[in-house]
Design brief:
142 residues; alpha+beta; 7 strands; 42% helix; elongated
């Protein structure tokens, strides 16, 4: 005798585990892709406000962005953003001096990524803005 519900649930769990393994495998490349997108934003900011105004770099399993303003003739740090890869989410945790932001990463067919924050799906443009806007433009508000 076959109990149908258990067979369905086993199949669902196998599918869930496969998707989870795929996301875990994809997470390091997702961080690299995010770095490339953030680097474009940092370069645009630097072009507008000076080469010393911002820098970006990889830091372990994460990304660090430092923002500086020119005060009294010298560049002084005004903000720092840390983006870490978190396998437990799976996704990214963003520390920018306020409440940490968590972005869940998923995969779509064709090796594409999806991003989710607080039950909202985000485009990569929205993700980069969520990460950098408070550090780059604190006086403009959200």
């Amino acid at each position: 005798m076959s109990i149908q519900w258990i067979e369905m649930r086993i199949s669902e769990e196998k599918d869930r585990r496969e998707r989870e393994a795929l996301v875990q495998e994809r997470l390091p490349r997702a961080l690299d892709e995010l770095y490339g997108d953030l680097q474009q934003c940092v370069e645009a900011y630097r072009a507008a406000f000076g080469t010393e105004s911002a820098e970006i770099g990889m830091r372990g399993a994460g990304i660090q962005v430092t923002v500086r303003n020119r005060r009294t003739g010298q560049w002084q740090q005004s903000a720092q953003v840390l983006i870490e890869s978190v396998h437990a989410l799976p996704g990214f945790r963003i520390e920018n001096g306020g409440e940490p932001i968590e972005i869940v990463v998923g995969t779509l067919p064709g090796d594409k990524l999806l991003f989710k924050h607080q039950e909202r799906y985000l485009t990569i443009e929205q993700v980069t803005r969520l990460i950098l806007d408070p550090a780059f433009f604190p006086n403009l508000g959200g």
